[in-house]
From TrEMBL:
Keywords: Cell inner membrane, Cell membrane, Membrane, Plasmid, Transmembrane, Transmembrane helix, Transport. InterPro entries: DctQ (IPR055348), TRAP_DctQ (IPR007387). It comes from Salipiger abyssi. The keyword Magnesium does not apply. GO terms for molecular function: transmembrane transporter activity. This is TRAP transporter small permease protein. GO terms for cellular component: plasma membrane.
Length: 173
């Protein structure tokens, strides 16, 4: 296991734990807000905003690296399993390269958006005043960057799995 592989694993695990914490915090806060509305006739302020701008975004993007490392993304293998091993390995390289490019592009664009929102101090108006949402904008590029790191490790593994002999076919998976 390489240092990059270990770093990607640790980062994926840490971000997933943050997503778990966001899930627990959201469940507790929403439940408390419902109870408050029922008991006192009033919601806990900014519950909806926190759930929308922070908790749900964290739940969506922070676990992406761990999902990739555990091969948890959709994998349509109907034709893949019919291909010779060498073709499967080449498809693995192509898949990882395309995924890395896609994640890199999305991470870059969302980071530019987060920079703009940070500079402008992006806020929303709530019942209790202005609520900052610019910090939540960084969750997306962080999650995509960690997922990109996990895919980079997968790409390196896919390259290592390519047969060195171009005539080597091997068994089908």
């Amino acid at each position: 296991m390489s240092g990059l592989d270990r770093a990607a694993g640790r980062l994926g695990n840490a971000l997933s734990w943050l997503a778990y914490a966001a899930l627990i915090l959201m469940a507790v806060q929403v439940s408390a807000s419902v109870a408050s509305r029922w008991l006192f006739g009033q919601d806990i302020p900014v519950t909806t905003e926190l759930a929308t701008y922070y908790y749900m975004v964290a739940l969506t993007y922070l676990p992406l690296a761990l999902v990739d490392r555990r091969h948890g993304h959709l994998f349509a293998e109907f034709f893949y399993v019919l291909m010779p091993t060498r073709v499967q390995r080449l498809m693995d390289v192509l898949n990882a390269a395309l995924a890395l490019g896609f994640l890199g592009f999305l991470g870059w664009r969302t980071a530019l958006g987060a920079i703009d929102r940070t500079r402008s101090g992006d806020v929303i108006s709530t019942t209790i005043g202005l609520f900052p949402v610019w910090p939540a904008q960084w969750i997306v590029p962080v999650g995509l960057g960690a997922a990109g790191l996990a895919v980079a490790v997968r790409l390196a593994e896919a390259f290592r799995a390519l047969p060195h002999d171009p005539h080597q076919e091997g068994d089908r998976r």
